[in-house]
Amino acid sequence: MSTPPHAALIGVDFSCTPARRKPIVVAHGEWAGDVLRLCALQTLDTLQAFEALLAEPGPWVGAFDFPFGLPRAFVDAQRLGAGAAEVVAELHRRCPTRMALRALIDDWGRARPPGQRLPHRRTDTAFTGVASTSPLQTRYVPVGFMYYEGFARLVASGASIPALHDGDVRRVALEGYPGWLAHALLGRQRYKNHDDAATLIARRQIVDALEQGRSPLGLRVKLGHAQRDALAADASGDRIDALLCLAQAAWASRRPRWGLPEDVDPVEGWIVGAGVHW
Q: Which of 10, 86, 3 is nearest to 50 (CA)?
């Protein structure tokens, strides 16, 4: 599978309960030679609007900030299936609500030793210096709910999900994780969910680094003055995260196999850029 010429690129900072105050943020971009150009930032206030985004005709390549799979230990213990699409369908059959999903995860976790109740996937720990949250986490950062709402809709959309699910090859969806790129640029420095001078400076540092091509992905991002200001001014960090996902989609669009390893676990999936060193 290869990227169609002139494919649109999208990066999605997802929310499982989008609203006007906390929308899904979509960064739209395109390749301009060897530079990634940010074309627009879009907000989606409902999951129905997210479904409409997924249904937009291709060619497009997108990176989405939610898990595309669950830890193998949990999937096998619950006998959920042999592939990612089968797993999410079976989970929705057994768990018609998010709270039912939480109860299933909690019941399983209580029978496991402390420290092993929310295991990670292999890809979650394949980054240097940082790990993504377990897809079984339904509290604090409710990544499990993001998987429940996001991945089911992605499969239903008929898009192609490389290594996990065959679909429309003109609509290609990949799992993104903006946190690892932010960590590569800032270390443990905070950049989101605070409106203070320190986090404003951190967001500006991320924007500067992306424009200059100083990231593990090695690509340069072209921004307009108004875009640069809007990215830095967003104290939630959601616009920055959407842009970081956009950069992951762009990087993957020019890599064999979308930058994925050959041994991707068909129920766990793989995050774009996991295992990349710089």
A: 10
What pLDDT, on the 0 to 100 scale, is given for residue 128? 86
Domain ranges of the chain: 1-186+237-278
Do residues 181 and 217 make contact, with C-beta atoms less than 8 angstroms apart? yes
pTM for the complete prediction?
0.96
Please give the full DSSP string across the chain, using - where no structure is assigned: --PPTT-EEEEEE--SS--SSS-EEEEEEEEETTEEEEEEEEEE-SHHHHHHHHHS-SSEEEEESS-S---HHHHHHHT--SSHHHHHHHHHHH-SSHHHHHHHHHHHHHTS-TT-SSPPPTGGG-SSS--PPPTT--SSS-HHHHHHHHHHHHHHTTEEBTTTB--EEEEEEEE--HHHHHHHHHTT---SS--SHHHHHHHHHHHHHHHHT-STT--EEE--HHHHHHHHH-TT-HHHHHHHHHHHHHHHHTSGGGG--TT--TTT--BTTTT---
Q: What is the pLDDT of residues 72-111, one digit of tens each?
A: 999 999 999 999 999 999 999 999 999 999 999 999 999 9
